[in-house]
Specification:
- The complex is a heterodimer of chains A (113) and B (112).
- Chain A is mainly β and 113 residues long.
- Chain A is 0% helix and 50% strand.
- In chain A, strand 7 (64-68) and strand 8 form a beta hairpin.
- Chain A is globular, with a radius of gyration of 13 Å.
- The N and C termini of chain A lie far apart (37 Å).
- Chain B has one domain: Immunoglobulins (Immunoglobulin-like, Sandwich), CATH 2.60.40.10.
- In chain B, a hairpin with a 5-residue loop joins strand 4 and strand 5 (43-48).
- Chain B is globular and about 50 Å long.
- The chains are: A mainly beta (113), B mainly beta (112).
Chain lengths: 113, 112
């Protein structure tokens, strides 16, 4: 079975632009979470969706938004990009929440110039 | 919010040596996971271990939830074990969210 997939793998943008990152969960999984990982740190929670509803949001500005589609795939959108948004963006899926193991995709590496 | 502390931050081992990585957390949690992050950034699931002991080949993990810590044991280390090991705990973030909170990781380098 396929694991969590993310696209694109790498992305280069300039300050002020907008970006959309995509994630497909493991088949049968209904929850998707997004994390941001900057160099040298552990991943930080951005959003969690379960059954297409937002379940939680981390400490990120309103420039960050996300949604989950009927097929449980998800998009993360970031507006008005800043240099500090350069990071590895990770998507995780689980069958349900809570008390379920989360599985991560390979990530999208975003560079903002 | 909950604090997750991992130690040591860096570890250099000779191939074949054993090691113990520690994860302390500041409050009760729903579950705990250990991950290995490879040089390309992929987080690989090692253990889902809210309590008790599990073993998988040369790796084993123990979580003592009542004392708020977990240990990851690596025996007979190999160069392919190199990378960053993360501990992550799940706890309610309010409003029905159950996010993982990660420690800063232990960077392991295994030299031949």
């Amino acid at each position: 079975d396929a694991g969590v997939t993310q696209s694109p793998t790498h992305l280069i943008k300039t300050r002020g632009q907008h970006v959309t990152l995509r994630c497909s969960p493991i088949s049968g999984h209904k929850s998707v979470s997004w994390y941001q990982q900057v160099l040298g740190q552990g991943p930080q929670f951005i959003f969690q969706y379960y059954e297409k509803e937002e379940r939680g949001r981390g400490n990120f500005p309103d420039r960050f938004s996300a949604r989950q589609f009927p097929n449980y795939s998800s998009e993360l959108n970031v507006n008005a990009l800043l240099l500090g948004d350069s990071a590895l963006y990770l998507c995780a899926s689980s069958f349900r929440v809570p008390y379920n193991e989360q599985f991560f995709g390979p990530g999208t590496r975003l560079t903002v110039l | 919010g909950i604090q997750v502390e991992q130690s040591p931050p860096d570890l250099i081992l000779q191939e074949g040596a054993n090691s113990t990585l520690r994860c302390n957390f500041s409050d009760s949690v729903n579950n705990l996971q250990w991950f290995h992050q490879n040089p390309w950034g992929q987080l690989i699931n090692l253990f889902y271990i809210p309590s008790g002991t599990k073993q998988n080949g040369r790796l084993s993990a123990t979580t003592v939830a009542t004392e708020r810590y977990s240990l990851l044991y690596i025996s007979s280390s190999q160069t392919t074990d190199s990378g960053v090991y993360f501990c992550a705990v799940e706890r309610s973030g309010g409003a029905g969210s159950y996010q993982l909170t990660f420690g800063k990781g232990t960077k392991l380098s295994v030299i031949p």
